[in-house]
Structure formats: structure tokens, C-alpha cells
Amino acid sequence: MVFLLSHVDKSEEQIKEEKAMMAADVSANADESSSINEGETIAYDKDQLYQQLTTGGGKVLDNFDLHEAMSADLCLLISDSHQRSLKYFYSLAGGVPCVSHIWVRDCCKMEKRLPYHSYVLPAGISLTRQHLIEWHSRHNVLRLLKVCVSSKNKKYVETWSSVLEVAGCVVKDASMTFEPGVVNFVLADASIASHVKSSAIDLGIPIVSSEWVIQCLINGQRLPYDAHEKFQHDYHED
């Protein structure tokens, strides 16, 4: 058994924004809501969870490792709610279920491994559909797409190249010569290299932000590159 732990405190602004998005979808039915009541007030104690999981024979990874995740008989990410964390994005990309920490508590209480399916957390909030998307197994939506990642920020390039590879993409070298059909899209931030930007524009290759990748993973489908303003590589909040 292999586990990842992820917890990020959400700001009041994030919570307010999420509530506004969910309120906009007044027609959402029960099947589209989380199967776990995320409002249940049980503190997320990372140290305690680590102790409980390892005592029960599990291994807790510091970072996402696709080989370990796929070779384990069970791999879960444990969190207290849907997250916008790197580990959560890796899990979405790799098809690793994200499960409520309440599952760990209940397993310890019952002294056996319980089925985790009723504890699964949502994939996240869809910007295009304006509500929570239930967890799904459609993690291959970007598989075999060829992508170039460009930014002056080396960490950005390394991180998102890694996420895209876990999602099944073929990551191309940004220093290559662009030709038709070599790249399906360019992932970049505002510091995109000028030669990459000009080549992509000349060849009609879409340039998108990391939010496009995130939203494709959350929605479980390949979204139009221009479906939301936040998909623009140079988008910034006013």
C-alpha cells in the first residue's frame, strides 16, 4: 500500500470563490456532488495520518512516483478536500484516487481496510461548468499529445513537464525547430521564449497556460484551448 498526503489551507477568498461557483449550478443533482460530506469537521493531522498509515503497513511517499504508484497493490492520495496542489494534480494525471482522511480514521476504528470508494473526493471545480466534478477514471485525456513547455522559470518547466509526462504526453525540447505536426500545443507562462511564441503563432499551434491542463484533468476531457480566459498563457488577474 502506497500513500500520498496532501493538505493546503484554503484562503477565505478561495472558499468564497468556490461557493460562488457551486451556487451558480443550481441544477446540479446528487450524483454530481461529493460522496463524502467535506464539511465534516475532523482535523487533518498529517503526522497522525503518517503514523496510522505506516503502522498499518503502508508506505507514505514524500513526492509522487508513478512507478511506485502503479506497482503498488493500492495507491491513494489522502486529503481533507479537493485541492489545487501539485500532488493532487499528479494524482489526477496518473489516475490515483484522492480519498478523504476520514477513511483512515474509519479503517483504524474498524481495525481493517475498508473499501475506499465511498470516501473518494471530487476531482475539483470546473471553470467551464461552474461546479464540482466528481472523481472519475478518465485520466488519459491528454495521452500521446505532443507538447513543448516554455518559461524562463526553470522550476515551472520541470514541474509541468513532469505532470504532462504522467498524463501520458510526449514532451518535446523547447529548443527544437518547430515544424507542422511536431507539437500539438505549447504550455507556457508570460515569460515564454520569443522564438517559441513566434513559431507557434506562425504554425497556428495553441499556446495555453497550466490552467488548461488542470481543467482537462479535472473535467476528464480535452477542453477547447479557448474555452476560458484563464487558459491564456499571459492571463493575469486584474
Describe what you observe in this structure.
Helices cover 34% and strands 15% of the residues. By secondary structure, the protein is an alpha/beta fold. It has 2 domains: 2-133, 3-Layer(aba) Sandwich (Rossmann fold); 146-231, 3-Layer(aba) Sandwich (Rossmann fold). The protein has a 4-stranded parallel sheet, with helices on both faces.
What is the gist of this entry?
By secondary structure, the chain is of the alpha/beta class. Helices cover 34% and strands 15% of the residues. The protein has a four-stranded parallel β-sheet with strand order 2-1-3-4, with helices on both faces.
Distinctive features:
single chain; 238 residues; alpha/beta; Rossmann fold; 2 domains; 4-stranded parallel beta sheet; 8 helices; 10 strands; globular; TP53BP1-like; DNA damage; BRCT domain-containing protein; histone binding
